[in-house]
Amino acid sequence: MVELIIAEKPSAAKKIAEALADGKPTKRSYKNVPFYELSHKGKSILVGCAVGHVYTLAERVKSKGFLYPVFDVVWTASYTVDRNASYTREYIEALKKICAKAKRFTVACDYDTEGSLIGLNVLRFVCKQEDARRMKFSTLTKPDLIKAYDKASKTLDWGQARAGETRHYLDFFYGINVSRALTCAIKSAGVFKILSTGRVQGPALKIVVDREREILAFKPVPFWELHLLGQAKRKSIAAMHGEGKFWDGKQAKSVFKKCEHASKAEVSKLDRHSFKQKPPHPFDLTTLQTEAYRMFGLKPKPTLAIAQSLYLMGVISYPRTSSQEYPAAIGFQKIIGDLAKQKKYQVLCALLKGRKLTPANGKKKDPAHPAIYPTGLVPHDLDPRQVKVYDLIVKRFLATFGNPATRETVKVHLDVNGEEFIAKGTRTVDRQWHELYDPYVKMEEEELPPLQKNDMVKIKKLTLEDKHTQPPKRFTPASLVRQLERQSLGTKATRSEIVETLYKRKYIVDDSIRATKFGMEIAVVLERHVPEIVDPELTREFEKDMDAVQEHKKKMSSILDNAKKVLTKILADFKKKEKQVGEELALTLQETRHIVDALGPCPKCGKGTLVIKPGKYGRFAACDQYPDCKTTIALPKTGKIESLDKKCEICGYPMIKISRRGKHQELCLNNECPSKDVAEPVQTKKCTKCGKGNMVVRKSLYGAFLACDQYPKCKHTEKLQHNV
Question: Treating both helix axes as pointing N-terminal to C-terminal, what angle do 556-576 and 578-591 enclose, rounded to 10 degrees?
């Protein structure tokens, strides 16, 4: 009897086949999609793969225009409704081909709601099966995969699969219907612009906009601080008046006058306190994303992508986890022993030798996967960003087993003409786990001179500083992901994607996140006319419902029925105000067009922004500082143009993405970018089409190319090989 194991991705299929094969698996392919044949303990096994989600929700009968609400939806092959998913067709056909040979089926997709749904869809729509065995693993190492296969459950993890399916239905219902409502509204005002929001995207935008409003409404309050700079025992010492902030300017100036002519300060009191600093808890996904942003400036989405690539290599455990716990079952001693084989970690691993290995587990748990840890396998051919994230994960893992560090704080009380000043110092006395987590330990180290009571400190400078209170801090991409987690919005796997979507929609900008005027106005319209869409409470309730589905406490059908009722009422109320909403949206779009059409900073003047403009001969990019800056760049006549919010690594010009017929191309806006130079000298040759002209080198946004010099009579062109 032949068994088919269904993996989530090609790289995972390869790892599973290599782990289970008694010898070496035989790699085969159908329509360039790989699959594997192998024997495991006398069993004949095929290992095939999906490529993430190969099925998606779509209307059962496609409606004309932008009608809403839409609830009659079905699962369908992704390639039939999305040109960008055309590559999934070959995977579905390959799975159909090989599942015809199988009598037994095992799902080995990622053990979470998304992976379980991917497996369920392949099983029921491709393999025409109602149930299957389920492998559960957290690493793609050989021992874990063999154990997962031998101990596979006899049935699917239906709770996770149904919870994942419920999420997709809810996201579709909210995303498609509210987006259509907004688009229809603006269309009714004579403007066509596809606008979108979603079940989690709306509340996420409101969080940023609310913070923006707090900042804009903030009124600074003046205060004063009195600082002393002194010297003792040949070391500098900085102190501040014991009052801290003076809210009364007259009082602050009075104290300053009392002290300004003093030349010495006397030590009146010393407070010394030592404390133990516990090691950090293991990484869950959000903490990893936060730490990677703090240390490397990596945004949450690329951090997840990098962690996922390391997982597929088999060098770390599954990254999409909420757990901050390492169970003993993962084998601490073996992992540390394997890590010690890498020269980079030999010394660190030796520091843990002979110790009782007890990790500093955190509070958060995840029933599906442990916290992120290195497997001990030696990684190969990592790119620079993968090296950074892998090193961070390894050292975090080791640090959790370290002993608490000892820190000491010292407060020196100084008397200056009867006024008290306080100097504070903090230092690390015994590093312990700090040594294991270097260079990622960032502690304030301020060591004071070794003073005793009644010692004198020479005053070198006394200053009265005029300050103002500061507005609330802006979110960073990492802190916004953390905020979404705190408010139970989205999942560990989707939160970074939600933040990226807000950037992509031009609702937010910058790493110190600022809501654009466009984003602010969209939020205002949603709050005024469909407040439920931006209300975090509604989304939180649905998140709880999906948890209940996963725990078999609620049925998917009842949750979807409730969602339809809620949405039907929301959209019916919206329909009554459609024209009014449309006029508000049209005005917003008109006022913020420069934000929506922005491609990036002008590289010539450095002050302006390149924006898309319509012209007599087609679109072009122009600096918005015209006439002071007259920079213009020709743009392709067709295709959707989007800013990638990054600069070309070679010339510094903005990078854009052009989408045409389901295909995407990333380009630098600079026609003269060295990356578009011709790789080799071009010899003059005759045009092969007209026979009259000579082929000469021309340049465009896409790079250098050969064109007939008889243009426009002859429009023949030929490609050239570029440097990059």
Answer: 80
Taking residues 283-292, report their average pLDDT: 97
Cα angle 575, 576, 579 (rounded to 5 degrees) comes to: 80
Predicted confidence (pLDDT) per residue in 347-370, tens digit: 999 999 988 999 999 999 998 999
Is 50 exceeded by the pLDDT of residue 679?
A: no
Question: Which of 256-260, 555-559, 628-632 has the lowest average pLDDT?
Answer: 628-632
Give the phi and the psi of residue 509 in degrees, each rounded to 5.
-140, 165
Measured CA to CA in angstroms, residue 441 lies from 123, 218, 273, 372, 395 at distances of 47, 34, 21, 19, 11
Q: CA-to-CA distance for 376 and 39, rounded, in angstroms?
A: 27
DSSP reduced 3-state for 207 = helix
DSSP secondary structure, 72-91, as one string: -EEEEEGGGT-GGGTTHHHH
Which residue's structure tokens are 């407070």? Answer: 271
- Pairing status of strand 264-277 against strand 405-416: antiparallel
CA 451 to chain CA centroid, nearest Å? 49
Give the whole-number percent of the chain exceeding pLDDT 90.
70
Q: Check if the beta carbon of residue 256 is closer than 8 Å to that of residue 501.
A: no
Across the beta sheet with 685-686, what order do the strands follow? 685-686, 694-700, 703-708, 717-719
* Confidence (pTM): 0.82
Three-state DSSP state, 640: strand
Tokens of 537: 């409470």
CA distance 571 to 383: 48
**Residue 36: HSE in the Cβ half-sphere, 13 Å Cα cutoff:** 26
Cβ contacts of residue 21 below 8 Å, gap of 6+?
Answer: 36, 38, 39, 40
Query: Mapping DSSP to helix (H, G, I), strand (E, B) and coil, where does residue 555 land?
Result: coil
pLDDT tens digits for range 140-164: 999 999 999 999 999 999 999 999 9
321 vs 284: CA distance, rounded Å: 6
User: Which residues belong to the active site?
Assistant: 318
Report which of 668, 648, 650, 671 is spatially closest to residue 658, judged by C-alpha positions: 668
* Spatial separation of the C-alpha atoms in residues 496 and 319, rounded to whole Å: 13
Examine the pLDDT at 617 and tell me if it is beyond 80: no
